[in-house]
Target: Putative sulfate transport protein CysZ
Amino acid sequence: MINFIKGMSYLSLGMVHLPTKGLKRFVILPIIFNLFVFIGLFYLIYHYLFPLSNYYINQLPSWLSFLSGVFVFFFIVSCFLFFLATFTVLFNLVAAPFNGLLAERAQYLLRNQMIPELTFAEITVRTIKRQMQFIRYFFPRFLGMCVLFFIPFIHPFFPFLWFAFNSWILSMQYQDYAMDNNLVDFKTMRQLMKQNKDESLGFGLFINFISFIPILNIISMPAGVIGGVLMFCDRHSQRLPPILIRKQ
Model:
């Protein structure tokens, strides 16, 4: 439980450090990307999910009409989490080079550590390759969760299952920026998360939770990136590569 709460605290630390001098210009682009994510989500909910939920409510037999409110709640929450996971993965793919730069700068300013210098083009290519590895991990599990959605007796539990799944995926994405920068390969990154699963789940769950809170959800991306850097440096500083240069 202590590690779970500690994991949550890293997102709070990420928020605290958003105004840090030298980080602001790296924070703006992730905020813009996240703003587009939530504009898209609320557009889909308003124009598609409400009409769709009303359609399914009308299919309910009259003797189940008293469950219509419960059905709408679970349907909207499930779809919101579904689209949140999908949009976040896609936008993180686009924003990955910028988040990588933010992670690099945060590690330098907040922990006095520098990673090997690369050009923006090199960072972009390396980061996209890493995101492709993530997608190969994510996609089959995403499809498995989609299959569960169509199993009737799982419906009451599905929002909670999806919330937990999405929390783990978000934790992986935001921890991976620092790990990739410090030359930790994807397989090792997954093993490290499993070894510290309570802390990792707490971190991802808090990111997922604030995604539902207006204003805070817009800053969740840069705060998550910075929090992931702080978590990596505090937990795995012994894994920093030999070629890493420390600021004197």
Remarks:
- The first strand starts at residue 113 and ends at 114.
